[in-house]
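agent> Task received from the user: take the single chain below, predict its 3D structure, and emit structure tokens. No templates, no multimer pairing.
agent> Plan: (1) validate residues, (2) run structure prediction, (3) serialize to tokens, (4) report one or two observations.
agent> Step 1 OK, no nonstandard residues flagged.
tool_call: predict_structure(input=
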Amino acid sequence: MELEKVRERVFEDRPGFTRQYGPARTDHQPGIPLWPQEATRDLVVIFLLVALMFFLSAFVTPFLGPARSPQVSELIVPDWYLLFSWGLLKVADIFPQFSLGPVRFSPQLWGDLLSGIPIIALILLPFLDRGREARPAKAPVRSAVGLAGIVSIFTASLYSIREVVAERWSTPDIDPSPDVRRVLPLIPDDTMKWFFLVPPILVGLATYVGLRRLGFRPMRSWIVPLSGAGFLIVILHALLLLLQPGSLPLYSQPHLVPLSLFLAVLCGTAGVTALAVVLLPEATARKAVLLTGAAGLAGFLGLFAWYDATGGDTMVWVLYVLYPNMNTLLFLPAFVVLTAWFGLRRPYSTYEYLLNECYQCGKCHTVCPVTKVEDDARGGLNLVYNTFKKQHDGVPLWTCLACDACSAVCPLDIKYSDYILEERAKSAGRIAADGGEPE
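)
tool_result: status=success, residues=439
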């Protein structure tokens, strides 16, 4: 009876159901128009909030407190949620300065432009992204850019307090004498500027590779060059640091052996991972990459704990050398391991991949004839989603009629009956292999 209702389009006039089915439909879901209903309501709420702000600022004057004392702090920082914007203002001095007619592209102007980019992106996003909803595996580029943007907020926030970071790392606290402090080089600001860019780029690439792999894309052509390039950069930088005269601070020379051990762990982790990706089959390479990453992390932390427990200033000088080179010596080995592991892991099954588009509208549960007679099925959230999650929703595997009523109303054209028949075949095969019979 329910299947006949679907075929006769009885549900068309009900709220929330479309007049056409599948991803190629041309109609729209019934809803409230943006203009004038939604726009008017939003304007009323905005005006009300603005009126409240004016009232509070006029009648409830905030206490500002005494003037800042230079003895308390030499660095004024904004609140934590504005640190990323302050970092964008500070990094503006790396852009070229020139004049274009009456406009002077000074660091101040570049800072204003950079600070406006996040706001402009948020304003334009609803107008640019007008397609249907897509899960991360269906939109790897958009997901990678979004995650890289989240990481860039953190890196910009840390760059905004670069003076504090440089003060903590500029001179190891082992000898307060002016002679020692004079020969110690300051941490270059280029390190923080590259930190502003390198982690978001690495995170975006790793995310893209992992999501494309989940979408059935063979990603070896991406993993091999990324892993190989990362390993080459790490090993070349380590060799230049150890062999090039004058590349290490004078007072770090007695600690060359501990520093070499740390560099060997980092280079070895990246190198073994790159070799595993190139030489081993995918399943074996994935296990090798996981073991290599765990061993590299354990080796680094073990060396750190050992030298820190033995006392002395060894770890101070090792970290003092690694910090200015963190963008290559620390971040790239982690990037090589994570990119290889994400790009080699098991992809989704066919049904899992299709389910990435399911947004749990509940139409399948509404038209399912089995849920009408199953007492414990009433109130279930979503037939497809709950079955995929192995959650009991009143429609066990063997009570489904495979009538495809759910597929007929699915806005994303997910074929639920194909999944049911596939799972039944697998279950029957397992029962037959065990010498039993299906119930």
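agent> Step 4: summary for the user.
The first strand starts at residue 98 and ends at 100.
agent> Done.
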